[in-house]
Structures are given as structure tokens and as C-alpha cells.
Amino acid sequence: MDHALHLRTATPSDHDWIHELRHRVYAQELGQHPVNPSGRLGDGLDGDNVYLVAARGDTRIGFVSLTPPWAAATPSTST
Hints:
globular, 3 strands
């Protein structure tokens, strides 16, 4: 069995998985966000962030979101 951990750039399918995982963790488990009927939770920086997915073979086991410095410096438009 290959136990090697591989990091790769997220695909469009991974982005769906990331939004679903975020919802499960931050809305359902931790209650930090309201539960959304779509079962997805986006982020205001999704358009700028770079996502890396950690996988063992075809099994995704986690992800990391990298925010470029220019995105973090952009003022938020949310109130």
C-alpha cells in the first residue's frame, strides 16, 4: 500500500469538495456559520486563493488555501 502523500493544485471537482468540506466542518460541526441547504460554504477570497489538495492515491485527505498578499490587502466589501 502506498502511504505517500501528494500535493497537487485543486481541480474544479476539488473546489466542489472543498466547499462541501468547509460547510461540514464550519457550519455543521463547529456552528461558526449558518447551515446552508446547498451543503456548501464559500469564502470571499475564493477567487484569489490558490488551493492545494493533499491526497493518497485517489483519496483526498485535506487541503490548504494560500492567499496571495495582494488579495489579503484588498478591503472587504462585506458588512
